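Supplementary Note 3. Input sequence used for the single-chain structure prediction.
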Amino acid sequence: MRHGKTFNHLGRKAEHRAAMLANMACSLIEHKRINTTVAKAKALRKYVEPLITKSKTDSTHSRRTVFSYLKSKEAVTELFREVAPKIASRPGGYTRIIRMGYRAGDNAEMAMIELVDFNTLYGNTVEKASAKKRTRRGAAKKKDEETDVTETPAATTEEAPAAEAKPKKTRKKKDDADSAE
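The predicted structure, written as discrete structure tokens, is reproduced below.
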């Protein structure tokens, strides 16, 4: 029975899958971002994030543990020298998956997986984009308020003739209210 054994096998045998994820993790660490399918990116995230967490403690044991997964001295060195100091204060979530559309050949959904702290351009644009959304919504409200303010004199001039067209009912009520007082 397969109780609780839920992870994506990616259409490969265990050895092939382990080798592929190790190679992808090495590429991600060395290049800071790679393009792949969404399924592989999600599997890679589960594979590489514990390794990055291990790299926070620079000891012989953690280096050997990470090397047993990656099988690349260059990737381990880069992970412990460059990546670990940058992510030392981050409690988790070291990678970001960005969907990139569909591949032309087989229509597979593609994604870019990257190390979060190493892409300053995308990080800044995300904050600006979310700020733009907030600004745009706020700007729309401000525009409505500004148009109300700008249209208020025009509206009063337009409403005045309309108010003059209806004065019989409103004046009677006002006259009744005045006479009641």
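The helical segments are 14-31, 38-54, 60-70, 73-87, 120-165, 167-180. The beta strands are 33-37, 95-102, 109-115.
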